[in-house]
Amino acid sequence: MQKIKRILVAIKDPSARSLPAVVKAAQLAKPWGARLELFHCISTTLYVDAYSTNGALEDVERVTSQKHRDKLQRLAGRLRAEGLEVGVSVEWDHPVFEAVVRRANEIKADLIVAERHAGRHFAAGLLQLTDWELLRISPVPVLLVKTTGMYQKPAVLAAVDPSHANAKPTDLDARILGQAALFSQALQGSLHAVHAYIPLPTPFPSNLLTESAVQKLAADIAAKARRGFERTVRAYEIPKARRHLLARHPINAVEETARKLNSAIVVMGALSRSGLKRLFIGNTAESLLDSLPCDLLIVKPDRIALAIQRRRRGPRISVLASAPLI
Fold first, then answer.
1. Which domains are assigned to the chain?
2. Do 6 and 34 contact (CB within 8 A), yes or no?
């Protein structure tokens, strides 16, 4: 099980009065002895006229960066007083989700903690909402914070899929359970696992089978799902009362179980895909991103390559047309 030694906290607004991502990242860093880095990306477009000098532009970049860095340093000072090792960084870069992943790669972060984007995630993949794209492209786990307050011996729910639907890599369930176990141990919580399966194939030609044949098929599918589920969770010593096998669609099963347990964190796997496959799988994830009443930890299969350029893009600059002087 991989240890978490470095945590990158992506801060959208260093001036915000409430920063639940920072609070929860600090809570996790203490038992792990992990180093925190508070990171803010400045993605504001700089508007300059055609006659501006490079020196003036550099002054704006420098002053703005220092203003945000000072705010992060004050926040870091309070965390250091609690015995945590904390660094800060501010970068001009865009888009924000790429900047966060770039910085995480630079410091070799084992976890990214970020806050959820406000509003519904309808067509999030097309709109390139920061949190959705961060979940999609980050090769390291991302804890998406949706709730305020600290964790109080939470129920951590690992959503696994032993059937490997959608060509899911076979190692992903192990990574999901491993991360869920890390979090539940650090927070002195309880580890649960859920697996959803479709009770009968769809579309199902029920008119071609007798009732007894349909019942036998359903029983065989349930037995196969149970065997796969038990095999997957066996190494994690999860009590039977904390293993949840549901004959439901995954969206409904995960949400139903999370609400029933009052889970604080749901741990799921995600695949980065392109084209129509990405959109189809994205719709499922988008539904849970909005409907789950708790924080969401997304993990990827092992050996996922960095899908963005490593070099920062710097500030976004727009040159305004100016009338010539007469």
1. 1-139+306-326 (3.40.50.620), 147-304 (3.40.50.620)
2. yes
Q: DSSP assignment of 249-260, as one string?
A: -HHHHHHHHHHH
pLDDT in tens, the chain (326 residues): 578 999 999 999 999 989 999 999 999 999 999 999 999 999 887 777 655 656 667 888 889 999 999 999 999 999 999 999 999 999 999 999 999 999 999 999 999 999 986 655 544 443 346 788 888 889 999 999 999 999 999 999 999 988 765 545 668 899 999 999 999 999 999 999 999 998 876 666 666 677 787 788 889 999 999 999 999 999 998 999 999 999 988 889 999 999 999 999 999 987 655 444 443 345 556 678 888 999 999 998 876 777 778 888 877 777 766 545 44
Cα separation, 79 vs 85, in Å, equals: 8
Alpha carbon 302 to its chain's center: 16
**27 CB neighbour count, 10 Å cutoff:** 13
Strand (E) or helix (H) holding 222: helix 211-233
